[in-house]
Amino acid sequence: MKVVVPGDYIGQGYVAGNGTYVPEDEPGTIYASMAGVVHLIDRVICVRPTKSHYKPDIGDVIVGRVVSVDQSRWQVDVNSY
After folding, report:
1. Which of 42, 47, 51, 55 could form a disulfide with 36 if both were Cys (CB 3.0 to 4.6 A apart)?
2. pTM for the full model?
């Protein structure tokens, strides 16, 4: 069982399935497009997401800095970097 996050290298020589992508400049190289667990079914490699959701908090660093948290969404200040 291999756990990956977006951008992690997964492999080559397989068919890219759900939760993966192949960059245009690297044909045949498969990367994860989401966090989850890698599964291989026949020649198709995919990433199945974990069951839990990320619950951000004020001060967490992601792509930017979380500045407020609402019940259904969170606001990120991407200009802080």
Report:
1. 47
2. 0.61
